[in-house]
Amino acid sequence: MKISEILKTGPSFSFEFFPPRDEKMEAVLAQTLRELEVLEPSYVSVTYGAGGTTRERTHDLVVGIDRDTTMTAMAHLTCAAHTRAELAAIVERYRDAGIENILALGGDPPKDLDLPKGELEYAVELVHLIREVGDFSIGVAAHPEPHPRSPSRESDRRHTAEKLAAADFAITQFFFDAEHYFDLVESLRAAGVDKPVIAGIMPATSISSIKRMSEMQGSEFPQWLSDKLHAVGDDPAAVRAVGIEEATTLCAALLEGGAPGLHFYTLNRSTATREIYANLGLSGAT
Ligand SMILES: Cc1cc2nc3c(=O)[nH]c(=O)nc-3n(C[C@H](O)[C@H](O)[C@H](O)COP(=O)(O)OP(=O)(O)OC[C@H]3O[C@@H](n4cnc5c(N)ncnc54)[C@H](O)[C@@H]3O)c2cc1C
Fold this sequence. Notes:
Blueprint: H1 3-6, E1 12-17, H2 23-37, E2 43-46, H3 55-68, E3 73-78, H4 84-96, E4 101-105, H5 123-133, E5 137-142, H6 153-166, E6 169-174, H7 178-190, E7 197-201, H8 207-217, H9 223-230, H10 236-256, E8 261-265, H11 271-280
Parallel strand pairs: 1-2, 1-8, 2-3, 3-4, 4-5, 5-6, 6-7, 7-8
């Protein structure tokens, strides 16, 4: 089913996975998929290693989930380091396998691989390429705290509005203060773009990893959250509990403020997502 159709039926709840690197991680993901399938997510998505590092594994996982589970799967695809012909071939293969949803991204290829630049500069060009290949529902990334490479907030908001106008929906980078999300949505609306903007959720369940990921993505790790987590910093279970509680509060505020969906960055584990689901009183939660 197309995600653009799913989004018409009310707030969506979706989960993101990455292709496992080895057999042990494959088993972990298989267990996670079983545990999260019962929550009946609106759809799930699978990341793509920029530059094509997970090309086959992303394809196989997306097609496998779509075929073997009750869940609708969306493929991430990044333009970095690819030629137009390579991207078209990847999209054609999804089309022929019956996949209807693609998240079109720029991508940040690992610097140490020294990959070629690629023929497409920006994600919006990939949106147009995908439209040429087939009848897909196409999502794009949006950055509530502007993208780190942007010269200014205004510039990033403008390019995001242009990109979303060409796509069907956006999913945001994670953030911890709801006001960043609402500011993004307001500027898109002011630019005349009213497509759904789904909020990306990353529960802060470990101080070191959330600090590292925030730095990488250009998301602020706010002082108030850092203070709350550090107050119980020598007890990992308590840190986790605070992270889940704060993520639940954020989700509730976003839904209350009209967010059309929540997208959970699961890191291939199910527990945090299940706990937040249960806290929010969502169906299927244990
Ligand atoms: C929900 C989500 C999922 C993601 N999944 C993956 C994944 O699977 N694999 C992966 O490698 N990465 C993934 N990323 C990360 C993403 O690839 C990076 O954030 C990347 O640096 C930017 O991607 P983008 O699609 O926003 O790029 P773009 O839209 O191309 O934007 C990149 C920069 O260029 C600017 N820009 C855009 N258009 C123009 C223009 N026409 N002229 C001038 N400047 C412009 C933007 O303002 C921004 O600063 C994901 C991010 C999100 C939010």
